[in-house]
Amino acid sequence: MTPTPWCPTLSPDEADRLLDLLRSWLPKQRWCPVNSADFQLSGLQSYSLPASVADASTHLVVGVLKLEFTTAEAGPRAVVLQVPLSFRTTVLEAKELLLVGQMDVAGESVFVYDGLADPAFVGAYLDLVRERGSTGSAEGLGPLAGHRIPGAEENESLRIPHATGTVRILSAEQSNTSVIINDGVSAAIIKTFRVLAEGNNPEVEIGAALTGAGVSEVPATLGWIRGTWPRIDAADQPVSVNDSALEPGARGEFAVVHEFLAGGLDAWALTVAAAAAGDPFIAEAEALGAATAEVHKRLAQSLPVAEQGVDVLGPLAERVRASWLEAAGVVGPYGPEVEAVLESLKGVDEQAQRIHGDLHLGQILQLPADPLAGKAQRWAILDFEGEPMRPVSQRSTPDLRLRDVVGMLRSFDYAAGAAERENPAVQVPETWVTNCTDAFMSGYGSVIEGTIDPRSPVFVALWLDKALYEVVYELRNRPGWLGIPVDAVRRALAPSQGSGSER
């Protein structure tokens, strides 16, 4: 049998058959960038996980694939996918929806599953992290290696569970896949990055820094997996589908393991329910502001801040102008007002640091009090991956703390709008959003001194950046929700005209 370069455990014919199965299976997966058959798929390389972690009837492979497709917005694109695979001679019970297909390997019929549905695969990934182990790639470019923060083995709170108890895959994520593991001693959640990105993933980098600093407002980072694959573009950008030249050596994170926060309640659902019921959310919003500020404060202490003079406002202005080109038709004739806001940024010098980058209520959990552990009710901020559509190189760049603040304030506005859309009989008073806004900023100011001025040029520009992004998104995906961000833009550009009636 002549091995195929990207997956030497299969013959060339078998590897082709596997790609055929994946071409049918991938568009049905929520995390896949394509949802039709109009794409090209090729294998780049694979890692075989140690056989000792699996039974004799199971073979575990981490497939690294190149996916090429075309979008109306960006044209030709190419991304690198991580596809964990489990080859089994027996059926996995209750995993029919995660079955990639059935094929013959070395004359024997095998079932091919999404590896993250198989406790054997999840266990292998956890072992790799726990033992700081490594396994070589088919291409010989570099190992797939597990990492932990220093001293993790001596800290019981950073224990990594074994996949011998409950192993539950989550299905709601759009760009990653997470699995919850609980062996009765401790629990963790492993997030696998489906689209690989070269560079230091901010979720890993920031999570490790905050965990090392003992920050309680985030789940502890227990470890991560880093690997190598053939580079498809040296600039870490999508490349033309006509450019098939592969350069070796791209490195990045494949997965990260976090502490699992049992009993956490979704902040978005809590806020929408409060808005719908007309319940004040002042104490909660104030605590959210304090938690956000604490994370910002510790990030500035744990990771480098930008040097003075680094331009963060120029790219901000470019983003606003780009969004305005598409949003102007539904927002109204406010072009001069937009330019006036951007002109007001000239000469302003703002200190940039590492931030969350995509902060909103959907990224936060409310954790119940634990009297036995001496812990009060608290908020926990999740998912420091940043905006998933931006390259890792941009997501890892220092930015303005106010970006996260604006993201949260926009989220309160959206929660009120969602409450009204879920129940047409609900009318959330504008004072509800205003009270949440004031409380959040008060809580933020209790940790980081200084007053947040919502009329400052930087605040207004960041508000426009976020609200115009929302307008473009709703225009493309949910026209019925356009009123929320459109009214937010109008309030920022012409406060006397923003009525809030379209929310």
End-to-end separation in angstroms reads 64 Å
Number of strands: 16
Helix content: 25-40%
Order of helices and strands: HEEEEEHEEEEEEHEEEHHHHEEHHHHH
Number of helices: 12
How much strand content do the residues show?
15-25%
The coarse silhouette is globular
* Uncertain runs: 234-246
Q: Mean pLDDT, as a whole number?
A: 89
- Largest sheet geometry: 7 strands, antiparallel
Rg result: 24 Å
Overall SS class: alpha+beta
Strand order of the largest sheet: 6-7-12-13-10-9-8
Main traits of this protein?
503 residues; alpha+beta; 16 strands
Question: Overview of this structure, please?
Answer:
With 503 residues, this protein is of the alpha+beta class. It has helices spanning 12-25, 119-130, 202-212, 267-277, 282-302, 313-331, 335-343, 392-395, 401-422, 430-445, 457-477, 483-493, and strands at residues 40-48, 58-71, 75-88, 99-105, 108-114, 134-135, 144-147, 166-169, 176-182, 187-193, 195-196, 221-231, 247-259, 265-266, 364-367, 378-381. It contains twelve helices and 16 strands. The strands form three sheets. The protein has a seven-stranded antiparallel beta sheet with strand order 6-7-12-13-10-9-8. Strands 1, 2, 3, 4, 5 and 11 form a six-stranded antiparallel beta sheet that branches. Strands 14-15-16 form a three-stranded antiparallel beta sheet. A hairpin with a 3-residue loop joins strand 2 (58-71) and strand 3. Helix 5 packs parallel to helix 10 (430-445). The longest helix is centred in the last third of the chain and has 22 residues, at 401-422. It is globular. It starts with 11 loop residues before the first helix and ends in a 10-residue tail after the last helix.
